[in-house]
Each structure stands twice: as C-alpha cells, then as structure tokens.
Design a protein that fits this description.
Number of strands: 0
Strand content: under 5%
Radius of gyration: 24 Å
Largest sheet: none
Length: 121
C-alpha cells in the first residue's frame, strides 16, 4: 500500500513556464500595428493580415508626424480620423486613413524633391 505522505514515492517535477509562441510575442514593429488595429476595432487575425500593409503605412505616417510610442501612434491616427472624416461607400476606415497617409507622404516626398531641384537648378 502506498503512503500518501511518502515523499520518495514519486519524483517531484518542476513546472516549466510556457514557452511563448509567435502569436503571443509580436516581432519588432508589429506591436504598433497590433495596437493600432485594436484601436480601430479590428479584433480578428484575418482582418489584421488583410490590412497589414495599410496599418504599416499608418504607423509609418504617424512616426513621420513625431509619434514615438504606441500611444502616440494611436493618438496621431485618431487625430487624422477626426480631421478627414469617415470613409466613402465601399471603403473602410483603415483603407480611408491609409490612403490619406500615403498621399501626404508622397506630397512630402515631392516637396522635398522640388526643393532639391530648386537649390541645384
């Protein structure tokens, strides 16, 4: 008969902490996209992967505007949403905001090229 108080009966196994998987620990740069997606109401992974490029563009745009943290990125994008309003029919908010961010970044790039041409010309 086994004695339930016998320490030698079964070896004690130490529990190991669970190893993180790729979904739990986002790669560098992914955390801002994930936070932004959640702030824009995207909760499922399918939507997140579908709009990954647009979210990345919004993060890049927000950083050009001076965002240094996830909270700053969310703040800049929310300010943009307030400024430009809602999307047109057939477009969603992420696409709408991303399109604006793309156009503004292109305008800045063109302005820079124009200034360089004026100086060098």
């Amino acid at each position: 008969m086994n004695n339930p108080y016998d320490v030698k009966a079964e070896p004690k196994v130490e529990a190991k902490p669970p190893e993180p998987n790729n979904l739990d620990v986002p790669a560098d740069g992914e955390l801002e996209k994930l936070s932004l997606a959640r702030s824009l109401g995207m909760d499922n992974l399918k939507e997140l992967s579908k709009y990954s490029d647009q979210l990345e563009r919004l993060v890049e745009w927000a950083k050009l505007k001076g965002a240094k943290s996830r909270e700053d990125v969310i703040w800049e994008v929310r300010q943009l949403a307030n400024r430009v309003g809602g999307p047109s029919i057939g477009n969603n908010n992420v696409q709408h905001l991303s399109q604006y961010a793309y156009l503004e970044m292109e305008r800045l790039k063109l302005d820079k090229q124009m200034k360089e041409m004026a100086v060098n010309g």
